[in-house]
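C-alpha coordinates please, single chain.
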Amino acid sequence: MKADLIVGIQWGDEGKGKMVDMLAQNYDMVCRSQGGHNAGHTIWVDGVRYALHLIPSGVLNPDAVNIIGNGVVLSPESIIKEMEQFDDLEGRLFISDKAHLNLPYHALIDQAKERLKGDKAIGTTGKGIGPAYAEKISRNGFRVGELLNPTKLCASILEYFEQNKAIFDVLEIATPSQTELVELLTTYKEKLEPFIANTTNMVWDAIDADKKILLEGAQGTLLDIDHGTYPYVTSSNTVSAGACTGLGISPKDIGVVTGIVKAYTTRVGNGPFPSEDFGQDGETMADVGKEVGTTTGRGRRCGWFDAIAVKHAARLNGCDQLSLMKLDVLDGFETIKICTAYEVNGEIIKYMPSDLEDVKPIYEDIAGWDSVVGCREFDALPENAKKYINRIEELTGVRVGIVSTSPERDDTIIRG
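Here you go.
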Protein backbone atom coordinates (compact mmCIF):
# COMPACT_ATOMS: atom_id res chain seq x y z
CA MET A 1 0.00 0.00 0.00
CA LYS A 2 1.25 3.48 -0.91
CA ALA A 3 0.89 6.55 1.31
CA ASP A 4 -1.27 9.20 -0.35
CA LEU A 5 -0.22 12.81 0.04
CA ILE A 6 -1.94 16.19 0.37
CA VAL A 7 0.14 19.27 -0.47
CA GLY A 8 -0.58 22.99 -0.69
CA ILE A 9 0.05 24.43 -4.14
CA GLN A 10 -0.06 28.18 -3.42
CA TRP A 11 1.16 30.31 -0.47
CA GLY A 12 -0.61 28.18 2.13
CA ASP A 13 -4.13 28.58 3.51
CA GLU A 14 -5.52 26.66 0.52
CA GLY A 15 -7.99 24.63 2.56
CA LYS A 16 -5.86 21.56 3.27
CA GLY A 17 -7.56 21.11 6.64
CA LYS A 18 -10.98 20.46 5.19
CA MET A 19 -9.58 18.10 2.56
CA VAL A 20 -7.47 16.08 4.98
CA ASP A 21 -10.38 15.90 7.43
CA MET A 22 -12.76 14.67 4.73
CA LEU A 23 -10.34 12.17 3.21
CA ALA A 24 -9.09 11.02 6.62
CA GLN A 25 -12.42 9.35 7.29
CA ASN A 26 -11.17 6.58 4.95
CA TYR A 27 -7.59 6.29 6.26
CA ASP A 28 -6.01 4.35 9.11
CA MET A 29 -3.16 6.80 9.73
CA VAL A 30 -2.68 10.53 9.11
CA CYS A 31 0.85 11.95 9.29
CA ARG A 32 2.14 15.52 9.58
CA SER A 33 5.62 15.89 8.10
CA GLN A 34 6.92 19.48 8.60
CA GLY A 35 6.28 22.99 9.88
CA GLY A 36 5.21 24.03 13.33
CA HIS A 37 2.42 25.86 15.11
CA ASN A 38 2.73 28.70 12.61
CA ALA A 39 0.45 26.58 10.45
CA GLY A 40 -3.28 26.61 10.91
CA HIS A 41 -5.88 24.24 9.55
CA THR A 42 -9.50 25.25 9.94
CA ILE A 43 -12.12 22.50 9.73
CA TRP A 44 -15.88 22.93 9.84
CA VAL A 45 -18.02 19.91 10.76
CA ASP A 46 -21.77 20.30 11.40
CA GLY A 47 -21.29 24.02 11.94
CA VAL A 48 -18.55 23.54 14.54
CA ARG A 49 -15.16 25.15 13.86
CA TYR A 50 -11.93 23.35 14.75
CA ALA A 51 -8.58 25.16 14.52
CA LEU A 52 -5.58 22.83 14.38
CA HIS A 53 -1.94 23.92 14.39
CA LEU A 54 0.16 20.84 15.17
CA ILE A 55 -2.21 17.91 15.56
CA PRO A 56 -2.88 16.23 12.18
CA SER A 57 -6.28 16.92 10.66
CA GLY A 58 -7.19 13.24 10.93
CA VAL A 59 -7.87 13.73 14.64
CA LEU A 60 -11.60 14.06 13.91
CA ASN A 61 -11.66 10.45 12.69
CA PRO A 62 -11.88 8.45 15.95
CA ASP A 63 -10.39 5.39 14.27
CA ALA A 64 -7.32 7.08 12.77
CA VAL A 65 -3.83 7.12 14.28
CA ASN A 66 -2.23 10.57 14.01
CA ILE A 67 1.53 11.01 13.64
CA ILE A 68 3.62 14.16 14.14
CA GLY A 69 6.83 13.37 12.28
CA ASN A 70 10.47 14.17 12.85
CA GLY A 71 10.36 17.03 10.35
CA VAL A 72 8.05 19.10 12.56
CA VAL A 73 9.34 21.66 15.08
CA LEU A 74 7.12 21.18 18.08
CA SER A 75 6.05 23.79 20.60
CA PRO A 76 5.14 21.82 23.75
CA GLU A 77 3.11 24.73 25.06
CA SER A 78 1.10 25.00 21.86
CA ILE A 79 0.36 21.31 21.43
CA ILE A 80 -0.61 20.85 25.08
CA LYS A 81 -3.15 23.63 24.71
CA GLU A 82 -4.39 22.18 21.43
CA MET A 83 -4.77 18.72 22.95
CA GLU A 84 -7.20 20.11 25.52
CA GLN A 85 -9.88 20.18 22.79
CA PHE A 86 -9.94 16.38 22.82
CA ASP A 87 -10.30 13.80 25.58
CA ASP A 88 -9.38 10.60 23.74
CA LEU A 89 -5.93 11.12 22.25
CA GLU A 90 -3.92 8.38 23.98
CA GLY A 91 -3.28 5.62 21.49
CA ARG A 92 -4.38 7.93 18.63
CA LEU A 93 -1.69 10.61 18.68
CA PHE A 94 2.07 10.04 18.54
CA ILE A 95 4.93 12.55 18.40
CA SER A 96 8.33 11.68 16.95
CA ASP A 97 11.08 11.61 19.54
CA LYS A 98 13.30 13.04 16.76
CA ALA A 99 11.15 16.13 16.15
CA HIS A 100 12.88 19.29 17.29
CA LEU A 101 11.60 21.41 20.14
CA ASN A 102 10.37 24.95 19.59
CA LEU A 103 10.78 26.47 23.05
CA PRO A 104 9.62 29.89 24.33
CA TYR A 105 12.99 31.53 23.69
CA HIS A 106 12.74 30.67 19.99
CA ALA A 107 9.72 32.97 19.64
CA LEU A 108 11.61 35.73 21.45
CA ILE A 109 14.50 35.37 18.99
CA ASP A 110 12.08 35.39 16.04
CA GLN A 111 10.31 38.55 17.18
CA ALA A 112 13.53 40.36 18.09
CA LYS A 113 15.09 39.69 14.69
CA GLU A 114 11.97 40.86 12.87
CA ARG A 115 12.05 44.11 14.87
CA LEU A 116 15.71 44.66 13.97
CA LYS A 117 14.93 44.28 10.27
CA GLY A 118 12.42 47.12 10.39
CA ASP A 119 10.73 47.68 7.03
CA LYS A 120 12.74 44.77 5.58
CA ALA A 121 11.01 42.25 7.88
CA ILE A 122 9.92 39.01 6.26
CA GLY A 123 6.56 39.04 8.00
CA THR A 124 6.96 35.81 9.94
CA THR A 125 4.34 34.66 12.43
CA GLY A 126 6.81 35.31 15.25
CA LYS A 127 6.23 31.79 16.56
CA GLY A 128 9.90 30.78 16.64
CA ILE A 129 9.76 28.43 13.67
CA GLY A 130 12.78 29.88 11.85
CA PRO A 131 15.07 29.96 14.91
CA ALA A 132 14.08 26.39 15.84
CA TYR A 133 14.91 25.12 12.35
CA ALA A 134 18.10 27.20 12.28
CA GLU A 135 19.30 25.54 15.48
CA LYS A 136 18.42 22.14 14.04
CA ILE A 137 20.53 22.77 10.94
CA SER A 138 23.43 24.23 12.95
CA ARG A 139 23.26 21.12 15.20
CA ASN A 140 22.45 23.10 18.31
CA GLY A 141 18.81 22.08 18.61
CA PHE A 142 16.98 20.00 21.20
CA ARG A 143 14.68 17.10 20.35
CA VAL A 144 11.35 15.96 21.76
CA GLY A 145 12.88 12.78 23.16
CA GLU A 146 15.07 14.90 25.44
CA LEU A 147 11.99 16.00 27.35
CA LEU A 148 12.04 12.60 29.04
CA ASN A 149 15.01 13.84 31.12
CA PRO A 150 14.09 17.43 32.10
CA THR A 151 17.10 17.98 34.38
CA LYS A 152 19.61 17.03 31.70
CA LEU A 153 17.75 19.03 29.05
CA CYS A 154 17.68 22.08 31.32
CA ALA A 155 21.46 21.92 31.75
CA SER A 156 21.94 21.67 27.99
CA ILE A 157 19.70 24.68 27.33
CA LEU A 158 21.44 26.80 29.95
CA GLU A 159 24.82 25.82 28.49
CA TYR A 160 23.55 26.93 25.07
CA PHE A 161 22.53 30.29 26.53
CA GLU A 162 25.96 30.70 28.08
CA GLN A 163 27.73 29.88 24.79
CA ASN A 164 25.60 32.46 22.96
CA LYS A 165 25.35 35.07 25.70
CA ALA A 166 26.58 37.90 23.48
CA ILE A 167 23.87 37.22 20.92
CA PHE A 168 21.11 36.92 23.54
CA ASP A 169 22.28 40.18 25.14
CA VAL A 170 22.00 42.03 21.83
CA LEU A 171 18.50 40.61 21.30
CA GLU A 172 17.64 41.55 24.90
CA ILE A 173 16.63 37.99 25.79
CA ALA A 174 17.26 37.03 29.41
CA THR A 175 18.65 33.65 30.45
CA PRO A 176 15.87 31.62 32.09
CA SER A 177 16.31 30.64 35.72
CA GLN A 178 17.26 27.03 36.31
CA THR A 179 14.40 26.44 38.75
CA GLU A 180 11.73 27.82 36.44
CA LEU A 181 13.13 26.04 33.40
CA VAL A 182 13.26 22.62 35.10
CA GLU A 183 9.72 23.15 36.32
CA LEU A 184 8.52 24.06 32.81
CA LEU A 185 10.28 21.12 31.15
CA THR A 186 8.92 18.74 33.80
CA THR A 187 5.40 19.95 33.05
CA TYR A 188 5.98 19.32 29.36
CA LYS A 189 7.22 15.80 30.14
CA GLU A 190 4.23 14.96 32.31
CA LYS A 191 1.79 16.06 29.61
CA LEU A 192 3.55 14.65 26.56
CA GLU A 193 5.41 11.50 27.65
CA PRO A 194 2.53 9.10 26.76
CA PHE A 195 2.61 10.41 23.18
CA ILE A 196 6.36 10.38 22.44
CA ALA A 197 7.40 7.47 20.20
CA ASN A 198 9.65 6.26 17.39
CA THR A 199 7.18 7.29 14.71
CA THR A 200 9.40 6.27 11.80
CA ASN A 201 9.03 2.60 12.73
CA MET A 202 5.30 3.11 13.31
CA VAL A 203 4.85 4.43 9.77
CA TRP A 204 6.99 1.66 8.32
CA ASP A 205 4.95 -0.96 10.17
CA ALA A 206 1.72 0.58 8.88
CA ILE A 207 3.03 0.53 5.30
CA ASP A 208 4.13 -3.10 5.66
CA ALA A 209 0.71 -4.00 7.08
CA ASP A 210 -1.03 -2.42 4.06
CA LYS A 211 -2.70 0.24 6.18
CA LYS A 212 -4.19 3.24 4.40
CA ILE A 213 -1.95 6.24 5.12
CA LEU A 214 -2.48 9.92 4.38
CA LEU A 215 0.36 12.44 4.57
CA GLU A 216 -0.16 16.18 5.15
CA GLY A 217 2.22 19.09 5.26
CA ALA A 218 1.85 22.69 6.36
CA GLN A 219 1.95 25.99 4.46
CA GLY A 220 2.22 25.79 0.67
CA THR A 221 4.66 25.11 -2.15
CA LEU A 222 5.37 28.79 -2.84
CA LEU A 223 6.61 29.12 0.75
CA ASP A 224 9.12 26.25 0.37
CA ILE A 225 12.58 27.16 1.67
CA ASP A 226 14.19 26.08 -1.65
CA HIS A 227 11.45 26.60 -4.22
CA GLY A 228 9.39 29.44 -2.79
CA THR A 229 9.62 33.22 -3.15
CA TYR A 230 12.81 33.48 -1.09
CA PRO A 231 13.43 35.09 1.38
CA TYR A 232 9.69 35.48 2.00
CA VAL A 233 9.30 31.79 2.74
CA THR A 234 8.96 29.40 5.66
CA SER A 235 11.89 27.44 7.09
CA SER A 236 11.13 23.94 5.83
CA ASN A 237 10.50 22.00 2.63
CA THR A 238 6.76 22.23 2.04
CA VAL A 239 6.80 20.29 -1.24
CA SER A 240 5.82 16.62 -1.49
CA ALA A 241 9.46 15.48 -1.28
CA GLY A 242 9.61 17.03 2.20
CA ALA A 243 7.16 14.41 3.42
CA CYS A 244 9.79 11.73 2.84
CA THR A 245 12.47 13.37 4.99
CA GLY A 246 9.92 14.63 7.50
CA LEU A 247 8.57 11.17 8.23
CA GLY A 248 11.43 8.86 7.26
CA ILE A 249 9.82 7.18 4.27
CA SER A 250 11.04 6.41 0.78
CA PRO A 251 9.84 8.24 -2.35
CA LYS A 252 8.70 4.80 -3.53
CA ASP A 253 6.22 4.77 -0.64
CA ILE A 254 4.29 7.80 -2.01
CA GLY A 255 0.99 7.06 -3.76
CA VAL A 256 -1.54 9.58 -5.09
CA VAL A 257 -0.47 13.23 -4.74
CA THR A 258 -3.35 15.70 -4.43
CA GLY A 259 -2.51 19.38 -4.76
CA ILE A 260 -4.79 21.74 -2.84
CA VAL A 261 -5.56 25.10 -4.48
CA LYS A 262 -8.00 27.89 -3.82
CA ALA A 263 -10.24 29.04 -6.65
CA TYR A 264 -8.44 32.36 -6.18
CA THR A 265 -5.10 33.16 -4.47
CA THR A 266 -4.14 34.47 -1.04
CA ARG A 267 -0.94 35.30 0.75
CA VAL A 268 -0.10 36.25 4.36
CA GLY A 269 2.82 38.52 5.21
CA ASN A 270 5.28 40.20 2.89
CA GLY A 271 6.65 39.10 -0.47
CA PRO A 272 5.75 39.27 -4.17
CA PHE A 273 2.23 38.33 -5.28
CA PRO A 274 1.73 38.97 -9.04
CA SER A 275 -2.04 38.38 -9.18
CA GLU A 276 -2.90 40.37 -6.04
CA ASP A 277 -6.00 42.53 -6.46
CA PHE A 278 -5.84 45.88 -4.66
CA GLY A 279 -9.39 46.94 -5.51
CA GLN A 280 -12.94 46.03 -4.53
CA ASP A 281 -12.71 42.50 -5.94
CA GLY A 282 -9.80 41.68 -3.63
CA GLU A 283 -11.69 43.13 -0.66
CA THR A 284 -14.76 41.07 -1.56
CA MET A 285 -12.73 37.85 -1.70
CA ALA A 286 -11.24 38.64 1.71
CA ASP A 287 -14.64 39.42 3.22
CA VAL A 288 -16.63 36.53 1.74
CA GLY A 289 -13.77 34.05 2.15
CA LYS A 290 -13.17 35.12 5.77
CA GLU A 291 -9.52 35.47 4.89
CA VAL A 292 -8.01 35.86 8.33
CA GLY A 293 -5.08 33.68 9.39
CA THR A 294 -6.01 30.79 11.71
CA THR A 295 -2.73 31.19 13.58
CA THR A 296 -1.95 34.89 13.39
CA GLY A 297 -5.31 36.60 13.03
CA ARG A 298 -3.74 38.66 10.22
CA GLY A 299 -5.80 39.49 7.16
CA ARG A 300 -4.74 37.67 4.00
CA ARG A 301 -3.90 39.47 0.79
CA CYS A 302 -6.24 38.31 -1.98
CA GLY A 303 -6.04 38.05 -5.77
CA TRP A 304 -6.94 36.04 -8.81
CA PHE A 305 -6.05 32.43 -9.67
CA ASP A 306 -2.47 32.28 -10.96
CA ALA A 307 -2.33 29.39 -13.41
CA ILE A 308 1.39 29.89 -14.10
CA ALA A 309 2.32 29.50 -10.44
CA VAL A 310 -0.05 26.56 -9.98
CA LYS A 311 1.32 24.73 -13.03
CA HIS A 312 4.85 25.24 -11.69
CA ALA A 313 3.93 24.01 -8.21
CA ALA A 314 1.99 21.02 -9.53
CA ARG A 315 5.06 19.88 -11.47
CA LEU A 316 7.32 20.32 -8.42
CA ASN A 317 5.01 18.08 -6.41
CA GLY A 318 4.12 15.51 -9.05
CA CYS A 319 0.41 16.18 -8.60
CA ASP A 320 -1.97 13.51 -9.87
CA GLN A 321 -4.96 15.77 -9.31
CA LEU A 322 -5.97 19.15 -7.92
CA SER A 323 -8.55 19.83 -5.25
CA LEU A 324 -10.16 23.22 -5.96
CA MET A 325 -11.24 24.89 -2.72
CA LYS A 326 -13.59 27.77 -1.86
CA LEU A 327 -15.16 27.98 -5.32
CA ASP A 328 -18.22 29.47 -3.60
CA VAL A 329 -16.25 32.60 -2.65
CA LEU A 330 -16.34 33.61 -6.33
CA ASP A 331 -20.14 33.43 -6.42
CA GLY A 332 -21.70 36.62 -7.73
CA PHE A 333 -18.66 38.04 -9.54
CA GLU A 334 -19.66 39.35 -12.96
CA THR A 335 -16.22 38.63 -14.36
CA ILE A 336 -13.50 36.34 -12.99
CA LYS A 337 -9.86 36.64 -13.99
CA ILE A 338 -7.20 33.98 -14.45
CA CYS A 339 -3.52 34.86 -14.71
CA THR A 340 -2.34 32.99 -17.84
CA ALA A 341 1.10 34.58 -18.38
CA TYR A 342 3.59 37.06 -16.91
CA GLU A 343 5.17 40.17 -18.33
CA VAL A 344 8.80 40.59 -17.25
CA ASN A 345 10.82 43.52 -18.58
CA GLY A 346 8.49 43.82 -21.56
CA GLU A 347 8.67 40.10 -22.38
CA ILE A 348 5.65 37.77 -22.11
CA ILE A 349 6.54 34.45 -20.46
CA LYS A 350 4.48 31.41 -19.48
CA TYR A 351 6.73 30.00 -16.81
CA MET A 352 7.52 30.99 -13.23
CA PRO A 353 10.86 32.83 -12.89
CA SER A 354 13.01 32.46 -9.79
CA ASP A 355 12.28 36.06 -8.79
CA LEU A 356 8.68 37.29 -8.87
CA GLU A 357 9.52 40.91 -8.08
CA ASP A 358 8.36 43.32 -10.82
CA VAL A 359 6.34 40.58 -12.53
CA LYS A 360 3.09 41.78 -14.08
CA PRO A 361 0.15 39.39 -14.56
CA ILE A 362 -1.52 38.85 -17.94
CA TYR A 363 -5.19 38.04 -17.40
CA GLU A 364 -7.91 36.18 -19.23
CA ASP A 365 -11.53 36.99 -18.35
CA ILE A 366 -14.19 34.37 -17.69
CA ALA A 367 -17.88 35.08 -17.13
CA GLY A 368 -19.05 34.60 -13.56
CA TRP A 369 -21.97 32.64 -12.10
CA ASP A 370 -24.71 32.90 -9.52
CA SER A 371 -23.99 30.31 -6.80
CA VAL A 372 -22.30 26.94 -6.34
CA VAL A 373 -23.02 26.63 -2.60
CA GLY A 374 -24.01 23.13 -1.61
CA CYS A 375 -23.39 21.53 -5.03
CA ARG A 376 -22.24 17.95 -4.57
CA GLU A 377 -22.26 16.78 -8.19
CA PHE A 378 -20.23 18.30 -11.02
CA ASP A 379 -23.27 18.42 -13.31
CA ALA A 380 -25.11 20.51 -10.70
CA LEU A 381 -22.62 23.37 -11.07
CA PRO A 382 -23.52 26.44 -13.13
CA GLU A 383 -22.18 26.22 -16.69
CA ASN A 384 -19.72 29.09 -16.20
CA ALA A 385 -18.33 27.44 -13.07
CA LYS A 386 -17.72 24.29 -15.10
CA LYS A 387 -15.99 26.38 -17.78
CA TYR A 388 -13.79 27.94 -15.11
CA ILE A 389 -12.74 24.54 -13.81
CA ASN A 390 -12.13 23.21 -17.31
CA ARG A 391 -9.96 26.23 -18.11
CA ILE A 392 -7.89 25.69 -14.97
CA GLU A 393 -7.30 22.10 -16.09
CA GLU A 394 -6.21 23.26 -19.55
CA LEU A 395 -3.82 25.88 -18.22
CA THR A 396 -2.23 23.78 -15.47
CA GLY A 397 -2.22 20.42 -17.20
CA VAL A 398 -3.66 18.74 -14.10
CA ARG A 399 -7.16 17.36 -13.63
CA VAL A 400 -9.38 18.94 -10.98
CA GLY A 401 -10.58 15.81 -9.21
CA ILE A 402 -12.18 17.46 -6.17
CA VAL A 403 -14.21 20.66 -5.85
CA SER A 404 -15.26 22.28 -2.56
CA THR A 405 -18.47 24.34 -2.68
CA SER A 406 -18.74 25.45 0.98
CA PRO A 407 -16.78 25.10 4.24
CA GLU A 408 -18.88 22.08 5.27
CA ARG A 409 -17.28 18.65 4.93
CA ASP A 410 -20.09 17.18 2.80
CA ASP A 411 -20.32 20.07 0.32
CA THR A 412 -17.64 18.54 -1.84
CA ILE A 413 -17.66 17.16 -5.38
CA ILE A 414 -15.60 14.03 -5.96
CA ARG A 415 -15.19 13.50 -9.68
CA GLY A 416 -14.91 9.89 -10.77
